[in-house]
Amino acid sequence: KLRGEPLECDMPIMVKYLKDTYGVTVYQEQVMLLSRLLADFTRGESDTLRKAMGKKQRATLDKLKPKFVAGGMKNGYDEKVLDKIWGDWEKFASYAFNKSHATCYSWVAYQTAYLKAHFPADYMAANLTRNKDNMSDIAKFMEECKRMGIKVLNPDVNESYLNFTSNAEGNIRFGLGGIKGVGEAAVEAILKEREANGLFKDIYDFFERVNLSACNKKTIENMALAGVFDCFSDVKREHFIATTQKGDTVLDVLIRYGNRVQSEKELSANSLFGDMTEAMIAKPPLPEVEGISSSELSNKEKELVGIYLSSHPLDDYYVVLNYVCNANTINLNDETFLAESEGKTLMIGGVVSNVRAGTSKKGNPYKVVSIQDYVGVYEFFFLGEELVTYSGYFVPGYKLLIQAQYKQKFAYQDRKSIVVSKILLLSEDSNKLVENISILLNDSMCATHCTQLHQLCDIYKTESGGAALCIKRKMQSSGKVLKLRSRAIKGLNVTKDFLGALEDLKIEFEINKL
Fold it and tell me: Which residue among 7, 265, 298, 382 has its CA within the 20 to 30 Å range from the CA of 40?
């Protein structure tokens, strides 16, 4: 309401208790006072109503409604208006607080909003640390970081601490303590050495200095495969699982080297020739190693830190998941989203992360298939004919596109569920799913971006299939939009990098919306 405008309440008498909240019931205390005012509830009955609202006790609310309506009618109020007020209170009950709680929550909301606006990386790092044991929440916060333009970087031996922290660039470093098999003692040893003698210069410097009793072989291997030593140019993750010509692992060789250097340092601490003795110990050369595939690398990261960091197995299908699919795993757990999508075809993309088989009480086999996307995991249940039809797709690592509907599955059941209607392999069908891309330009952008756009499209053009290119030019004089189809470019390979380049140029685009 604007200042000076009269308040509108269902009944004029209600203004007495609603004037401070612009005629809207906001606090539980207001419900208590109004129930006594309108329907002669006793103080005990009004408190029972408050408890029922606060604890979502539906049975108690249903029991109190007739008393409220009868009491209100006895005082001369219209039954329909009383029903309307009670209906509003029932909706209000889903978020109702007492005034003191509402004040505290609003104060905390203000503080956290301030921190998120002015210290975004620190705020998100604190949230990630607070929820580090809940991978579902971690995935949500990671997605929020991505939306905010904050990168969550691999753990780093020279920058990471025990928990998530922000760095000088405004990004977030994964904490060393979040790596599987890395205990606080190992992290403390690394941090203590780093703070005392500076950053580690290379992989040899790390083994020469760190306490190898606190950082054992398995700890170092897990750290390496999680990307902790990626900052060193002299070593790759592959080295830590490679073997030498003598059959030793490279990691064993480096540990022996480190132990020898540290022993010599200790023995020659009081020797005039200590520095010379240390220099005589040759650094073991690292063998040539074959690269690890991006999928193997991402799976190892997932195993060790619980999430994908440097790459994601679905990155090749980023465009399909973000611009063709109309739902994700979080949506499938959202009752409001499902209710609004009832009867519509939902498209969800993801990778099979787990398959669990079982037998129902009636002796029928079933499978529960976990599908993971960028934001979370959803479990699909397959039984009977569906199980027979789609069982060939239930292989961990398979990337799938699933079409489904939220509807009543069986005529004899009232409840609705997600019913799968089609499954496709993203590896075979992703190119067909991105049919066209429309690039939106105005007159000034045509003058400034035309050459860059042409060069970009030339890089990503493809002769085998691809998406049709359409230029939508908005005429500033008339406001009309002209659609121009490209003859020179038959098809575009629309990738994450291509869309990123368009975003860098601040060029708007639409996919499959010709």
Answer: 7
pLDDT digits (tens, 9 = 90+) for 202-225: 999 999 999 999 999 999 999 999
Q: Is the pLDDT of residue 140 over 70?
A: yes
CA 475 vs CA 443, 478, 479: distances in Å: 6, 6, 5
Give CA–CA dist 18/245, Å, rounded.
83
Rg of the chain taking only CA atoms, in angstroms: 31
Q: How many CB atoms lie within 10 A of CB 166?
A: 18
Tell me which H or E stretch contains 140.
Answer: helix 135-148
Residue type at 150? I
Residues 476/442, Cβ–Cβ less than 8 Å:
yes
Q: How far apart are the first and last CA of the chain?
A: 43
Q: How far apart are CA 502 and CA 505, in angstroms?
A: 5
pLDDT value, residue 214: 92
Whole-number Å distance between alpha carbons of 3 and 225: 62
Across the chain, what does the average pLDDT equal?
85
pLDDT of 277 over the 60 cut: no
Distance CA 482, CA 471 (A): 8
Dihedral in degrees, nearest 10, Cα atoms 241, 244, 248, 254: -70
Asked if 31 contacts 50 with a C-beta cutoff of 8 angstroms, the reply is yes
What amino acid occupies position 117?
Answer: A
Residue 387 has a CB neighbour count (10 Å cut-off) of: 17
CB count in 10 Å sphere of residue 261: 19
Q: What is the CA 354 to chain-centroid distance, rounded?
A: 19
- pLDDT by residue (tens digit) across 60-97? 888 899 999 999 999 999 999 999 998 888 887 777 77
Q: Are 329 and 350 in contact (CB under 8 A)?
A: yes
Question: Which stretches does DSSP call E strand in 261-412?
Answer: 345-359, 365-372, 377-383, 399-408
- Give just the sign of the alpha carbon dihedral 485, 491, 493, 494: positive
